[in-house]
Design brief:
heterodimer; A: 127 residues; Transcription Regulator spoIIAA; five-stranded mixed sheet; 5 helices; B: 791 residues; alpha+beta; Beta-Lactamase; Phosphatase 2c, domain 1; Heat Shock Protein 90; five-stranded antiparallel sheet; 19 helices; 43% helix
């Protein structure tokens, strides 16, 4: 029963959390601990890569929501990519998807980020 | 409804009857009048004819007499011309009817070698004119007035003729021959004549006839049938006076196709006497004719009476009668209408009142009818009826109020009674391993059926069906007592035979009313299928096999409860195989009757294909439907109770895990669960959902029941059934029903703003196909069930 989280940076000062394994009552404290820095200084863009996450319970959801709340607190944006069916079902059951930007693949997410970057540059050059 | 008014009917009948009687009377009178008319017409004509014949005869006889006297003078005197002139003058002057007279000697008879004939007549100026006939009319002896008597030797009246030569008037002449003795024989001496001018006589006759009526007319025919009177002839018949004289009427009529006139003329000529009617001898009208002969001259006199005239009189009287009759009828109608109104007016009022009394007996006002007749009597009766109905309605109201109160109380009693029966889960899973369903359909009155189903701690199920002997409140109370006692004993795990024994003893106590209960009580062990049961006089249950075959369980009847204190009950056993169903019922099923009073009966129940129903609930409903369809319109006389107990198919596998400790133990549970699920071949998705449910429920148990302390203890049962997978969590913590007591997360808020609590319970509820909580023997029991994916 393992859970791991890998954290790295993406463009535009964004942070990515790649989750894998089972995020349940047992592993949730570990997850909460490892994202302490993200909670402390939330990035403008937080990307959850769920490709490896096969299980999530309410304990894990609670931390996801905590992160979401922190990012939204600085008007940032939370994105999700590679949701696996069982996990996706859990999000659907509690009606959480509409508040997230969900992408089905990394390519789709990259397109979106490119688009945002272009807009940012345009704004700076134009201003 | 169309009312044919009494007034209309009265008028119709009275006027109808009056009309019929009047018409009959009128008809008889009319016929009589007609007969009278005929008689009168005939009489009038005959009377007139007789009078006229007498009159004319008198006239003629006078003339004949005078002429004969002159003849006898001539015979004896042989008057010379001067004497002749004097004789003729006196003759004419003596009788105004005589127009002229003549003395004509036979040749050589007056004086040899001389010829003498004298004629004297009335001139236009009123004087007399003398004429020497020999000189004026030498051929006179060839004329009929001379020739006929000279040849025949008889006095004779001539046919009417027109004296064209002399006066131009028409006349008839009476001629007599005068003879003298001549050597023993007789020799014609002279012919003496007297003329009658018809013109003056016509006026006389006309005047005479008018005495018999304005329109009475006279027709006189000569001996040869020539018409003497002129006015009486039809225009066509009388066109030519000369023609009239020259042609007889019979011949004349025949030429013009008047056969009836011809026949009349013939009869008159033959001297007959009689009466005839015909249309228009002189007019186009119906006429009455009486004719009789005038013997003297050989003439025939007919009197004509116009029928129309008489009819006019009759018709006038008839019109008068009709008018009177109509007046009479109108009067009768008026009287009838008035009378009918006076009768029906009050009747109509009374009818209206009677209708009002029907709607509201007290508000209706009975009209005051004071007449002392049948209508008055009716009014009085109606008034009395109003009072009676008022009283009756009052009584009825009181009775109804009492009845409603009683019904309200009964229905409350019924509700209490029904509340004493156990409530069953809809899916029939009261106890693992069996599918149970029961229903009690109460009859109208509070009845005494009962059933009970108690899941025992060891997984067995106690069942009981009973029927109190009577109906009504007493039976209901007795039933309540029975159910309460049975519940008490049953929950203590008392075996069926002993339970019935103790129930019997309790019910016998102070049972002065001698009420009793029949009951069948048993315990099913779903695991082994063993049924231990005992009977207290109740109907034998029916066993339905999986193949649809049914058979009654053979068993001794046993003593009913509540009568014999010393009664004991025998314990019996049977084995219920998986898929088999035991059907218990009360006699409300087998003794249900239809309107032909046939009973539903044991056979019909046995023939019921109970084994084919998918669940106990469906079977119970099927039996009830069958009974109700059979009963049809017939009222349900007794409570109907049906209880079905089916041992579910085997194939169940149960795994148990004892958890002890705090949150950290959850991973142990998950490891166990994962391996069990994998071993059972459950797919990853379903397994993941079951694991999620287990984690959420147990986290809740640890948090709520044990306040996150590390000594939490819970038993997890994982049960595989052919169609579903169940997770049961039980713990001995304080009562807590997470399904109801956990806070409901507000899904309308964004997830990051929602309160954290309750999310897990929500997940469980949403994931479960069935989830239920119950508190039993100090334990919280929560069951989470997922159906296996089909196929």
């Amino acid at each position: 029963m393992s859970f791991s989280v890998h954290q790295d940076s993406v463009r535009n000062g964004g942070q990515r959390l790649a989750l894998s394994g089972r995020l349940d009552s047992t592993t949730a404290p570990q997850f909460e601990q490892s994202v302490g820095n993200v909670l402390g200084s939330p990035p403008a863009i937080l990307v959850f890569d769920m490709a490896g996450l096969e299980y999530i319970s309410s304990a894990g959801l609670r931390i996801i929501f905590k992160l979401q709340k922190a990012v939204k607190g600085i008007s940032g944006e939370v994105m999700m990519v590679n949701l696996q069916p069982p996990v996706r079902k859990v999000f659907e059951i509690i009606d959480a998807l509409p508040s997230l930007s969900v992408f089905s693949s990394v390519a789709e997410l990259d397109d979106y980020l490119d688009h945002m970057q272009a807009k940012e540059i345009e704004k700076h050059s134009g201003g | 409804m169309r009312i044919r008014s009494l007034t209309t009917r009265l008028i119709t009948w009275v006027l109808g009857a009056t009309l019929i009687v009047s018409v009959v009377i009128f008809y008889v009178r009319f016929a009589e009048n007609r007969q009278n008319l005929e008689r009168d017409a005939g009489q009038t004509a005959e009377l007139a004819a007789r009078a006229l014949v007498n009159d004319i005869s008198g006239l003629m006889r006078g003339i004949e007499q005078a002429t004969r006297t002159l003849g006898s003078v001539v015979r004896h005197v042989r008057p010379d011309p001067d004497q002749s002139r004097a004789l003729l003058r006196s003759l004419i002057m003596a009788d105004p009817a005589i127009y002229g007279a003549a003395i004509a000697y036979a040749p050589e008879a007056f004086v040899a070698g001389t010829d003498f004939a004298a004629y004297m007549y009335r001139s236009d100026d009123g004087g007399l004119q003398y004429m020497d006939v020999v000189a004026q009319d030498p051929g006179f002896r060839n004329k009929p007035w001379y020739r006929v008597p000279a040849l025949t030797g008889k006095a004779t009246w001539s046919e009417p003729y027109l004296d064209a030569d002399l006066s131009g008037i028409d006349m008839v002449t009476f001629s007599i021959p005068v003879y003298e003795d001549n050597d023993g024989g007789l020799r014609l001496l002279a012919v003496v004549t007297a003329d009658v001018a018809l013109g003056s006589q016509r006026s006389r006759i006309k005047a005479k006839s008018k005495e018999f009526g304005d329109d009475v007319r006279v027709l006189i025919l000569s001996r040869e049938g020539r018409v003497i009177t002129v006015e009486t002839l039809h225009e066509e018949l009388s066109r030519d006076v000369t023609g009239v004289y020259t042609v007889p009427l019979a011949e004349y009529a025949a030429q013009r196709g008047r056969e009836d006139v011809r026949v009349l003329a013939e009869r008159m000529m033959q001297g007959e006497q009689g009466t005839a009617t015909l249309i228009g001898i002189d007019r186009e009208t119906r006429q009455w004719i009486h004719f009789r002969p005038l013997a003297l001259t050989g003439w025939s006199v007919a009197v004509i009476v116009e029928e129309a005239l008489l009819l006019e009189a009759i018709e006038a009287s008839e019109l008068r009668e009709i008018a009177l009759f109509a007046l009479n009828l109108a009067l009768v109608a008026l009287i009838v209408v008035t009378l009918a109104r006076r009768i029906t007016g009050p009747l109509r009022q009374l009818a209206t009142t009677a209708r009002e009394i029907g709607h509201d007996p007290l508000a209706a006002e009975v009209p005051a009818i004071t007449t002392h007749d049948e209508v008055g009597d009716l009014g009085e009766a109606l008034r009395r009826m109003q009072v009676d109905i008022g009283n009756y309605v009052d009584e009825l109201k009181t009775t109804l109020d009492a009845k409603q109160r009683l019904e309200g109380e009964l229905s409350a009693a019924r509700q209490i009674q029904m509340a004493m029966l156990p409530r069953l889960p809809e899916d029939g899973r009261l106890t693992d391993g069996c599918d149970v369903a029961a229903t009690l359909i109460p009859a109208k009155a509070v009845g005494g059926d009962l059933f009970d189903l108690i899941p025992l701690v060891d997984g067995r199920l106690l069942f009981m069906v009973g029927d109190v002997s009577d109906k009504g409140a007493a039976a209901a109370l007795f039933m309540a007592k029975t159910v309460a006692l049975a519940n008490l004993l049953g929950r203590d795990g008392v075996a069926p035979a002993e339970l019935l024994g103790r129930l019997n003893q309790e019910l016998c106590r102070d049972n002065d009313a001698c009420m009793f209960v029949t009951a069948l009580c048993g315990v099913l062990d779903p695991a082994s299928g063993e049924v231990v049961y005992a009977n207290a006089g109740h109907n034998a249950p029916l066993r339905f096999g999986r193949d649809g075959q049914a058979a009654y369980i053979d068993m001794p009847p046993g003593t009913m409860l509540g009568v014999f204190e010393e009664a004991t009950y025998r314990e019996m056993r049977l084995e219920l195989h998986p898929g088999e169903t035991l059907l218990l019922y009360t006699d409300g099923v087998t003794e249900a009757n239809n309107i032909e009073l046939e009973l539903f009966g044991d056979d019909r129940l046995e023939a019921f294909p109970g084994g084919l129903f998918a669940s106990s609930a469906a079977l119970v409903k099927g039996v009830v439907d069958a009974v109700e369809a059979f009963a049809g319109e017939a009222e349900q006389a007794d409570d109907i109770t049906v209880l079905a107990l089916r041992r579910t198919e085997s194939g169940r596998v149960e795994k148990v895990y004892e958890m002890r400790g705090g949150t950290e133990e959850l991973s142990g549970v998950q490891v166990w669960l994962e391996s069990e699920l994998r071993e059972a071949g459950i797919g990853d998705d379903l397994a993941g959902e079951l694991q999620l449910a287990a984690e959420e429920v147990l986290a809740n148990v640890i948090h709520h029941a044990h306040h996150d302390l590390p000594d939490a203890a819970a038993e997890i049962v994982l049960r595989f059934d052919p169609d579903e997978i169940m997770l049961q969590f039980s713990d001995s913590g304080p009562a807590f029903n997470p399904l109801e007591e956990a806070p409901e997360p507000d899904l309308d808020l964004p997830p990051e703003e929602r309160p954290i609590g309750g999310l897990g319970v929500l997940l469980c509820k949403r994931l479960a196909d069935r989830i239920e909580y119950r508190r039993e023997e100090g334990r919280n029991i929560l069951r989470f069930v997922k159906r296996r994916p089909s196929g």
